Amino acid sequence: MADQSSINSLQELSGLAKNSSNTDKSCIPTRLISPGYNINDDINDNVFEATVENAAFGGGASAVNHDRVPEVIPDVYNILLQNQILMQNMMKKQMFSTTDSSNNVNKNNSRKSATISRTPAPVLDKLFDVNNNKSEQSEQLYSDISSAESNDESVYDSDDDCSGDEELAENTSKKNDNVNVLESMKEFISTEELSGPKINNDLAGYMNQGLRTRPNEDKLKELTQKYNKPANVSSLKVPRVNLGIWRQMTTRNKDVDLKLQHLQNLLSKAACPMILQQDSIQEEKERSKVDHVVSASDVSTNDQLLDISGEQLQNFPNNFIGGKISLFFDRWKELTSDYWILDIIKGYKLEFENIPTQINKPHPLVFNAIENQYVQQEIDKFITKRIIQPVTQTEDQYVSNIFVRPKKDGTYRVILNLKQLNLDIEHIHFKMETFKTAVTSISKNCWFGSVDLKDAYYSVKVDKNDRKYLRFYWKHVLYEYTCLPNGLTTAPRIFTKILKVVFSKLRSKGHCNTPYIDDSLLVSKTYAECQKNITDTVKLLDYLGFTIHPDKSVLQPTQIIVFLGFVINSLTMRITLTEEKADNIAKLCSRLILKKEITIREFAQVIGKLVATQPGVQFAPLYIKSLEITKDILLKCHYGNFDAKMILSEDNISDLNWWVNNVKSSFNPINQKDPDFILKTDSSSKGWGAVVQDTLLETKGFLSYEEQKNHINFLELKAVLLALKWFCSSREKIHIQVYVDNMVALNYINKMGGRILKLNTLTKELWNWCINRKIWVTAFYLPGVANIEADRLSRSINVDIEWKLNENVFHIINSLFGPHDVDLFASKINHQLPRYYSYFPDSYAEAVDAFSVQWNNINCYCFPPFSLIGKILQKVDKDKADMTLVAPLWNTQNWFPLILHRIVADSFMINSQKNLLYQPQSPTIEHHIVKLKLAVFRISGNCSKVMDYQKKLPTLLHHRGNQLPNNNIGHIAKDGCHFAVKGKSIYLKPLS
């Protein structure tokens, strides 16, 4: 009994036929001239000559009636025709020679043209070779008459070489030969035809219908293009007439030959499907042999399945059919009583919000040659496995397109494009276990196994009434899915829910597992426990009708496993990319960098590939987020057009280069060590504060005027960065837990960035600072009411220490006494030089607490809090330092004379002006001492320098009757002021 797929294929062939009243006469089959053709019929020389001409020069063979084309196998026809001609010529010669002998015809008569003297054995041998399947190439057969007979002179008779008696004996022998030939031909061409056993009635009906009716030319052309001749079967090639002979042929003979070539081509094309079918059967046999090839461990995968299960499994890839688990419904009832699950097992009904209606069918997609080949292979495989089936058109059907996506092995996955249909299907949110879920179950030195399901979605049957919504056309044939297709929006949820029942049963036995669609990770502490876990999992899945994928499953416990494209190592407790995936990412980024111009779609596709690597690349988000921001900006500018052109920025190229240089060596630790300390931070509109938990360590600082303009999310993130720089600038290889009271800051730290450019840039700065010191940061949320200490520090800011001298005034001072090396007692917001020493903790300062640093051998600039001037002068003496000091002209202070006694160069008075002093964090605030007079002094702790300068000073002049002390202040005016030091006069002129 022929199977249904064969009947369907023949139905397609018979569908080519059309009943037509106007039958083309050129296509009417004619009888072949039999070698037993009656010589007494109307035969003349012209008939023989025309026939010989066609046999000798044609690509095929011609019948006597040139209006008809014999529809038989050309090579056999030529052989039969040649033998018929030979026999007729022999009989004709016999009649002529008998008449000539009896009438004593003169021997000077001219030679009989092309009279055959004997039967050419080679032609008959070839005939019987055909009967014995030993035929030669058709090109050789075409040349038998012309070469074998024309080149051998002995085959022609001559009146000079024979006598009447010899001729009579020869004729008698020829008659006997003719009888033998006719008997042989009669035996070869028998009118009786033996019949084999009957085939399927439907199949026989299709065959009879197809053979009786004329085929549709368009359909016939499509079918002949569908099946190509195998490259290694050269005998199917249609022979052609030699070009030189072709040019000598008449138009009539050329037409006949072309028709015969067309017929031969159709016959060879018709043989192709049968050859391909036989080849597929042979390939299946070879594949079944490959399934049992012994692996490197000397145990085949199927043997492993047998070993771990202890019994023969029921389901293998070679006996898979679509919707197979429905055949095991009774066993599912043993596993669960959930009616919803059981209904799915019997046949899943699509969950529509609205019954879909289709007005217009989608335009079919165009595939290239390679894709077309793979799609055809998949379609054939789907039909064999009953995943799809050919159907007839209905009014309420829904037709979609199929498209392909490349797989890892270089082949293509066929996907049904259900984008439009999915709009009418109810969307139900569900939770599925992810790779991150699987990682949480891993412990040091644990053992792994993995069970992968083959054709997972196709195992779930779709209700017959809903299959009409899962239809597509392929090469003008309508098919429908009988099971869950790739592309259905509910497929992941349905399959996840089904497997949840299965793996819940296994978990109840104490097995740790994480299913993810068709794959699963099995984890156990010991080798034996893992082996038991694998065995129970395989047994249960097979018992319920699932097919275990023998190649992708890991059935022997291991401590290094590949799961969902990542290498998990329980020995090192690291996750890495597979070597192949890492190479692909590096090549992908390199190619993108080299392109001068790309589309946003290409850019987005690369970003998608990078995002997928995150579980195996620790700092992946840091070099993805900025690319995503670029993509978002460009899409907004081009109104969502993914095909718009773009050029990579320098920042984009820098991020992509990081992937090229680091992806192969990157990894992601499965867990982090315990934190070395806990840091609490907070920020206010003016400043920030931080404290180390369970210690007395704390710090705080101002925010600059520009920083204060930012959103509080930015300020909270900034506070974390400043706190890390303050407490960890000299530490490495530590883990810090940071508690913040802002969820945005928390997410940006833990996710290494986000979609807001300013926050992402700050986050990248934070993480790059940590990476350089091998510091890992984990952020946690702490409500504001509990973050009391850091909040207090962020608000208790002394603004009086943050005054800054007008920058124009500083530039004049720097030109007089500079260039200065370092700014003493400055802060992040008021320093005048790139290098500065702070008084209070400051993460950006080169040193904290300027008094703790040596001041000698550097040119210092100092505008300190006024209360520190006395202590500063002591430090100057101690370090023998040189300094430019800005201080108020307060002669009532005890430190003022000390300044005068350390001056080593001309000093200047700074005239009052608007904004002479300002606070960078609050520029509008004015200094509360309105009449403050400032001066700039060049001082030194080196006594010899002081004495050398004082020697240059003029002696103090006294007016008659007035006696002034040697150390005193004279008159202070707008044009300067005078001082007296050891009887010397010091004049401070205005700074200009």
What would you note in describing this structure?
This protein is of the alpha+beta class. The chain folds into six domains: 23-188, no CATH class; 217-285; 301-572, HIV Type 1 Reverse Transcriptase, Chain A, domain 1, CATH 3.10.10.10; 575-669; 677-795, 2-Layer Sandwich (Nucleotidyltransferase, domain 5); 799-990, Rossmann fold (3-Layer(aba) Sandwich), CATH 3.40.50. 40% of the residues lie in helices and 15% in strands. A ten-stranded mixed beta sheet has the order 26-25-24-27-28-31-29-34-33-32. A five-stranded mixed beta sheet has the order 3-8-7-4-5. Strands 20-19-18-21-22 form a five-stranded mixed beta sheet, with helices on both faces. α20 (579-594) runs antiparallel to α23 and α25 (712-728) packs across α26 (743-750). The longest helix is centred in the N-terminal third of the chain and has 40 residues, at 251-290. It is elongated and about 165 Å long. The model is unreliable at 1-74, 98-169, 287-300 and 959-964 (pLDDT under 50). InterPro entries: DNA/RNA_pol_sf, Hepadnavirus_pol/RT, Rev_trsase/Diguanyl_cyclase, RNaseH_sf, RT_dom. Residues 98-118, 135-176 are annotated as: Disordered.
